[in-house]
Amino acid sequence: MKIFVTGGAGYIGSHVVFELCDAGHKVTIYDDMSLGRDENIDKRAEFVLGSTLDKQQLAKALNNKNFDAVIHLAAWKAAGESMEKPKKYSENNIVGSMNLLNAVSDAGIKNFVFSSTAAVYGFPEYLPMDEKHPINPANYYGYTKVFVEENLKWYSQLKGLNYVALRYFNAAGYDVKGRITGKENNPNNLLPIIMETACGIRDKVQVYGNDYDTIDGTGVRDYIHVNDLAAAHILALKYLVENKKNLIVNLSTEKGYSVLEAINKAKEITGREIPYQIVGRRDGDPDTVVASFAKANKILNWEAKYSDLETILESMWNIYKDGNR
Ligand SMILES: NC(=O)c1ccc[n+]([C@@H]2O[C@H](COP(=O)([O-])OP(=O)(O)OC[C@H]3O[C@@H](n4cnc5c(N)ncnc54)[C@H](O)[C@@H]3O)[C@@H](O)[C@H]2O)c1
């Protein structure tokens, strides 16, 4: 198939593009390189430098190119920042996505895979969370993804678009084959922060609270290896072609790891000291977030293969151990 991938030079996007090329698809990456990394671009893919905020460029890139599907990853993703800078998030995540949806409809493309997030659910009302869990985002970032999911539903009804929305939980790890070596800049997530501490880029890991109702008092989250996320995109495309129907699924493992489990496992794997400091809780952080992947398993025949903590951390240390940013 001929696939157009927005954000294909980013952290998850680059893994998705490698997986698509491995599976024999013809890929065009569309990325403005605001956060993309040159070294992560698969040479087998065509690259177009462009923004979803540029309607003319989008039309030029999509019209008369016979794309079979679009995978839309381009977005900002820092939940905390979205609460301080809603304009930044509404422009890129909402306006950019609507520009893309309109350009996709104009170009007559019928298949769309969307990078959604666990953040659409907000504070867990029950565990493991499934797709029927109430949608109640606790941050503006999560709301931008709800907005796009809702518009996908409308565009499906009004424009005949078929879509799969993949609600990723905490993306982690790097390509298990070691092909992706460009690290994320200024990571906000626990595991890259642990890695940066192990290789001396940071002095310590801040642990936000150790009095939660979990095995060791620190927060428990559902981590999912990027190679597992990437594999789900291939299955989503297959689903769209075979079923011509919409689907919304969690990509998760239902198994959580605590902050201290992650730090201790990372010590073991890296052989380095990983100093940490317990600080106060952050507002709105739940004890535990884990989600069911039963729907993705049943409908897409998907399950995580690389998402145990050891494989995730080993694949990260592989690229962090050189100590460079
Ligand atoms: N990383 C996670 O844990 C996680 C979890 C849930 C959902 N997601 C979603 O997955 C997607 C990819 O996340 P990521 O972790 O790879 O982030 P990332 O920042 O590494 O990648 C985003 C890519 O999109 C590009 N981009 C941003 N705005 C653009 C625009 N307007 N036009 C063209 N390109 C643009 C950036 O240059 C970058 O290459 C995002 O939509 C994010 O919301 C990520």
The H/E string reads EHEEHEHHEHEEHEEEHEEHEEHH
Instruction: Specify the CATH class of the domain at 2-172 and 223-251.
Output: Alpha Beta
Helix percentage range: 25-40%
Q: What is the helix tally?
A: 10
CATH superfamily of the domain at 2-172 and 223-251: NAD(P)-binding Rossmann-like Domain
Supply the key terms.
alpha/beta; Rossmann fold; seven-stranded parallel sheet; three-stranded mixed sheet
Describe this protein's structure.
- The structure is a single chain.
- With 325 residues, this protein is of the alpha/beta class.
- It has a domain at 2-172 and 223-251: NAD(P)-binding Rossmann-like Domain (Rossmann fold).
- The chain contains ten helices and 14 strands.
- It has helices spanning 11-22, 55-62, 79-84, 86-106, 140-159, 190-198, 226-243, 259-270, 294-300, 309-320, and strands spanning 2-6, 26-31, 46-49, 69-72, 111-117, 162-168, 170-172, 205-208, 220-221, 223-225, 247-251, 257-258, 276-279, 288-289.
- It has a seven-stranded parallel sheet, with helices on both faces. Strands 12-9-14 form a three-stranded mixed sheet. Strands 7-10 form a two-stranded parallel sheet.
- Strand 1, helix 1 (11-22) and strand 2 (26-31) form a beta-alpha-beta unit.
- Helix 1 crosses helix 7 (226-243), helix 2 packs parallel to helix 4 and helix 4 packs parallel to helix 5.
- The radius of gyration is 19 Å and the shape is globular.
- 46% of the residues are buried.
- The structure holds nicotinamide-adenine-dinucleotide.
- Nicotinamide-adenine-dinucleotide is lined by residues 6-7, 9-13, 31-36, 51-53, 73-75, 77, 92, 96, 115, 117, 168, 170-171, 184.
